[in-house]
Amino acid sequence: MATLIDAAEFTSNEVYQIQATDPVEGAASGASFSGTGISNQPHQQLANRTAFLKQRQDVNISNIATLQAFEALFTGLMAQNGYLKLGVADINRGLIQYIIQWGLVDWGTTQDEGLYGPYSFPIAFPNACEGFMPVTLTPEYPGKIAAGDDIVMVSANYLPTTTQFWVWNNRVLNAPDGARGFYWFAIGF
Q1: Helix (H, G, I), strand (E, B), or coil: what is residue 65?
Q2: Mean pLDDT across 99-108
Q3: How many helices (H) and strands (E) does the chain have?
């Protein structure tokens, strides 16, 4: 049994309607409609249109799966110590997730000069912490860095790590504007 071979093409308003005066003509050498025959012409046109629509549907399914995978790159936690993951097509690294994290460390009372930590990020940076910014939390001047308040981020190797950070408080204990903690913000990937 011979079958029609479809070609993925769409021509609107072009499915042939067999006329009452059309003779029955099947596929044969020299038959009309490029050898398919007038009786097979509408079937061929519908088969071509179906193949075209199936091809487009397959592309749509693939695109939807790609978009769903991209959407999964956007997650976060809105909390006092939280994070936001953003899917980015980085010029140098390709498709990666930027991770922005923030938090608050409140010692409750002023702390003397020294190294404090370790403190953990809400989630680990899979690759690296590229930047860290602490802002002093002082009793009289919340969020403002007063004279002599130097809180800086350090780690075991004096470089940002992917899971924890330490801070150096360069403030004398019980000073009137002594740091009692800090807000922090970090970015990495």
Answers
A1: helix
A2: 89
A3: 1, 8
